[in-house]
Amino acid sequence: PRGWSVPVRGTGHAFVRAPARFAPRRPLSALRGGASVVAVAANGASVETVATLPIDGQRPGTSGVRKRTAVFMEPNYVENLVQAFFDTLGADALAGSTLVVGGDGRFFCAEAAQTVLRMALANGVGRCWVGVGGLIATPAVSALIRERDGGSALCGVVLTASHNPGGADKDFGLKFNVANGGAAPEPGT
Questions:
Q1: Position 132 in a domain
Q2: Which terminal CB of the chain, N or C, has fewer other CB atoms within 10 Å?
Q3: CATH number of the domain that 100 lies in?
Q4: Residue 7 falls within a domain, yes or no?
Q5: Could you tell me the residue range of the domain that residue 154 belongs to?
Q6: CB atoms inside a 10 Å sphere around CB 56
Q7: Contact 15, 83 (CB under 8 A)
Q8: If pLDDT is split at 50, 70 and 90, which confidence band does 5 have?
Q9: Residue of 29, 36, 46, 162 marked catalytic
Q10: Would residue 150 count as lying in a domain?
């Protein structure tokens, strides 16, 4: 598999992901073991630790990553980007936190949203706020991170390539927003 170099709690270069059929309900207990170990979440779901390798030359900017949709569809590409972002936040911050996930509905948005939700579960996020069908405009994601029903979220993942054209043979993107609703600063990306 390809991906970023993403150490997971001392297990080497790996990311964790929950099974595709599992719906997030509560935080995970601590992962144990090394790469390729299957751990058990507090809710009984298994979590797979997957070995990964760095993507040469990959470095998101302040507004995330935009590339051809086919690149995002490569095995483990989205998982590696999301895990790298989660790693910058840290396991303690993620444990029981709230994540906002939404996008502009372009090609591959629904699949990427499901991947982000599985990664959130595997990393101990307690709750996800997701738009109907995964649709939330970029400014709305920022607003939701800052406040929703008197609460706030730790961060958000925006599934868009912004003004770039979308489609199977066009562009897709991931943006990472932090607690103030703004783009993650470059040291965190």
A1: yes
A2: N
A3: 3.40.120.10
A4: no
A5: 60-188
A6: 6
A7: yes
A8: very low
A9: 162
A10: yes
CA distance 55 to 39: 26
Residue 64 clears pLDDT 80, i.e. is over it: yes
State the pLDDT confidence band at 138, using cuts at 50, 70 and 90.
Answer: very high
Please provide the DSSP assignment of the chain as one string: ------B-TTSSBEEEE--TTPPP-SPPPPP-SSTTPEEE-TTS-EEEEEE----TT---BTTBEEEEHHHHTSTTHHHHHHHHHHHHH-HHHHTT-EEEEEE---TTHHHHHHHHHHHHHHTT--EEEEEEEEE--HHHHHHHHH-BTTB--SEEEEE--TTSPBSTTSEEEEEEE-TTSSBPPGGG-
Is residue 14 a part of any domain in this protein? Answer: no
162 is annotated as an active-site residue: yes
For 35-54, b/e burial (b = at least 16 CB within 10 A) is eeeebebeeebebbbbebee
Q: What confidence category does residue 187 fall into, taking pLDDT thresholds of 50, 70 and 90?
A: low
- In which band, very low, low, confident or very high, does the pLDDT at 30 lie, cut at 50, 70 and 90? very low
Please classify residue 103 by burial: count the beta carbons closer than 10 Å to its beta carbon, then call 0-12 exposed, 13-18 middle and 19+ buried: buried
